[in-house]
Design a protein that fits this description.
mainly alpha
Length: 54
């Protein structure tokens, strides 16, 4: 699964707080995403690690 690059706003920038509505929309967007079980996540992680080790 790839992350979306459509948002270029840096959420980690200090001194630029986001509004409550922006925060709520980010949470809602994350909740609507695809989720993996723990077993699936471990399998994906192992595949990723094996690609890096080559």
């Amino acid at each position: 699964m790839k992350t979306s690059n459509k948002k270029s706003k840096n959420l980690a920038t200090p001194g630029k707080p986001m509004s409550q509505d922006e925060f709520a929309s980010l949470i809602k967007e994350a909740e609507e995403g695809a989720f993996n079980t723990l077993k699936e996540s471990k399998r994906i992680f192992k595949e990723w690690r094996s690609k890096l080790e080559k």
